[in-house]
Design the sequence.
DNA sequence: CTTACTGCAAACTCTTTGCAGTGCG
DNA sequence: CGCACTGCAAAGAGTTTGCAGTAAG
């Protein structure tokens, strides 16, 4: 699974005369291991466990690269920093406005209706985001 | 319509020992006249037509105030600045990734399914955003 | 008169770019 | 070896805060 993505990245690098480096390998494979959404700073901390000298900018640029070749999506929940998520793991999000917990959901019926809405506007969908904000079950009790 | 919102704002101000000022009145009423999404800078330009000395910060703080009392929503499409939109004019958005045009849509069936998803997760929805990115009909032709 | 508001300027936060040195191919 | 990549440091973009003067109640 991760292997095929690393492979995909390598092909992209080759095709564009870009180089494979140990930083990119490390950052990408760490990112692919991450299931959840990750912010640049978090991923930086993570990769620094193996390579303490890696810079913020390299992580940043590698994520942009992954985004470019379609292996990552960049999201902007609420305010503040970007979060990156693995492409292919598409899902929508429920975000708790109290504790910040992010729960994922997927509903094919919603996806279908979405397609229909697009058709009716003659709009060609490339991607979408659907986020629900509210209180998660744990926070409702308090 | 706008009147009742201004009224609502005034009540909120009173209840919280805050003051009614000509800047707030102007900013709020200009905001309520704006149907579409507005960024701070745009609203600033608009109100400066009547009151050239109004500062960015005042517009900013007034928008936060409106958000606080539920009269505005703050959104973060893509990257960059925030956009504020009138509460009550709920709709979802289709954003053209070429020309940036924002089209609004609403689909009750989607809203219903959304409610159901929340129920199944025991999640209490407060608000949501649903955005579709792609090419608008005009840009598809090019 | 007292207390909140305004508007300037400055501080912050996160992102993006410039550049000299490093290392892949 | 040449050219792309790294990592630092500095520049940007947008937002947020501190403060002295001003005005609402």
Sequence:
């Amino acid at each position: 699974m991760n292997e095929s993505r690393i492979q995909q990245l390598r092909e992209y690098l080759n095709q564009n005369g870009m180089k494979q480096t140990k930083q990119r390998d490390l950052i990408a494979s760490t990112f692919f291991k991450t299931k959840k959404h990750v912010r640049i700073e978090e991923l930086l901390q993570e990769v620094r466990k193996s390579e303490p000298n890696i810079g913020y900018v390299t992580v940043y640029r590698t994520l942009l690269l992954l985004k470019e070749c379609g292996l990552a999506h960049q999201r902007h929940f609420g305010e503040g920093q970007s979060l990156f998520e693995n492409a292919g793991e598409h899902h929508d999000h429920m975000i708790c406005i109290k504790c910040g917990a992010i729960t994922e959901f997927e509903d094919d019926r919603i996806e279908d209706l979405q397609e229909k809405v697009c058709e009716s506007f003659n709009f060609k969908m490339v991607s979408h985001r659907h986020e629900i904000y509210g209180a998660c079950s744990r926070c409702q009790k308090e």
Summary: The interface with chain A takes residues 74, 76, 78-79, 82, 94, 96-97, 103, 105, 107, 109-110, 113-114, 117-118, 121-137, 140 of chain B (CB under 8 Å). The longest strand of chain B covers residues 124-135.
